[in-house]
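Figure 6 in text form: structure in, sequence out.
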């Protein structure tokens, strides 16, 4: 498909400014509409150049919309994705893909039936630091990866969180929100999907009906292991990094600080990186795939696998047992093919 692609953003909340920025940075796309049940938010994001809607179904009727970016509470991902695909649009849906495997399956079926692309926005693997970490690990420079520790500590910020985020029934909690990122980036650099999990997910800091702390041990199909440790504390020290221990050395990367370091004589030495706006890279990947010039870095089947792992960890918390992950995930090529 050549020519300009019109973009509709559904959900003008916290993250949506990054989506609008991605549209501005992606050649051949233009923001034409924004929908949010809060009209003031839709109007603020739409600005002068786009039209604001309260009802996203009305916006979907526009023939100049070819791509829909969905940034909604997690329990709305499936219904809005399926409606958008049925309206003939390509979809960029935020992670996690959905709240259940059945929802993921309906989304995948809808994309197949509509013959449209469905991209799940696992943004962390589009950061320069993650891409460079994967390149180094694949090069064999520090030997073969054995395990990774993925650690993300941050303030929960309960006073600024929307109500849906405090309720697991609406897809809320840190695990679905950030666990999705952590599992994806760690699996991607270690180059494997997940075979089984043992986890604890709780809410020790705030006592809410969604989680604010998680620890998971992942056994990967390629023999590597990973720990995922996440906290949304009341007070503490922020950290967001992945450390990979290999047979011939170690590396550490931190997407938000744009940092990648490899061990040298017993200490980490940083390597230079050129920062990229990861959401722009994601949208450019989708647009390239729509035009037949690129392949999707994240397939819907991978998004489904991540949901399976997230839910497997919840099941392990309930049962106290290790849980086998039934789905197989195929890692997309982003980074490997482009850098
Ligand atoms: N990729 C990333 O790095 C990243 C970062 C933050 C959030 N996210 C994801 O983005 C999504 C949104 O998160 P957020 O923090 O922006 O949430 P948010 O609650 O701030 O925003 C959601 C918006 O959706 C609107 N909305 C709710 N129901 C609607 C409906 N039926 N129709 C239209 N609009 C509706 C709300 O009014 C709100 O403005 C989530 O999937 C989250 O995981 C991704």
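Output sequence:
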């Amino acid at each position: 498909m050549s020519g300009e692609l019109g973009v509709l953003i559904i959900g003008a909340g916290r993250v949506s400014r990054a989506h609008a920025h991605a549209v501005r940075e992606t050649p051949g796309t233009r923001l034409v509409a924004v929908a949010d049940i809060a009209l003031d938010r839709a109007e603020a994001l739409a600005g002068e150049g786009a039209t604001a809607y309260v009802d996203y179904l009305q916006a979907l009727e526009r023939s100049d919309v070819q791509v829909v970016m969905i940034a909604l509470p997690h329990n709305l991902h499936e219904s809005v994705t399926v409606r958008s695909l049925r309206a003939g649009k390509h979809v960029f849906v935020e992670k996690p893909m959905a709240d259940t495997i059945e929802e993921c399956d309906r989304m995948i079926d809808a994309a197949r039936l509509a013959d449209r692309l469905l991209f799940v926005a696992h943004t962390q693997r589009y950061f320069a630091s993650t891409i460079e970490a994967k390149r180094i690990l694949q090069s064999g420079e520090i030997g073969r990866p054995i395990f990774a520790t993925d650690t993300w500590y941050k303030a929960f910020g309960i006073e600024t969180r929307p109500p849906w985020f405090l309720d697991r029934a609406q897809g809320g909690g840190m695990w679905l929100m950030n666990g999705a990122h952590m599992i994806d980036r760690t699996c991607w650099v270690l180059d494997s999907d997940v075979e089984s999990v043992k986890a604890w997910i709780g809410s020790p800091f705030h006592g809410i009906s969604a989680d604010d702390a998680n620890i998971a041990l992942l056994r990967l199909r390629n023999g590597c292991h990973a720990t995922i440790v996440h906290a949304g504390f009341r007070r503490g020290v922020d950290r967001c990094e992945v450390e990979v221990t290999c047979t011939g050395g170690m590396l550490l990367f931190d997407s938000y600080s744009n940092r990648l370091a490899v061990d040298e004589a017993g200490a980490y030495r940083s390597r230079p990186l050129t920062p990229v706006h990861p959401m722009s890279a994601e949208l450019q990947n989708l647009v390239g795939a729509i035009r037949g010039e690129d392949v999707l870095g994240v397939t819907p089947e991978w998004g489904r696998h991540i949901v399976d792992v997230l839910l497997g960890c919840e099941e392990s918390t309930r049962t106290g047992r290790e849980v086998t992950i039934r789905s197989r995930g195929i890692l997309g090529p982003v980074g490997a093919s482009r850098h």
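Caption detail: Residues 125-272+299-324 form a domain with the Dihydrodipicolinate Reductase; domain 2 fold (CATH 3.30.360.10).
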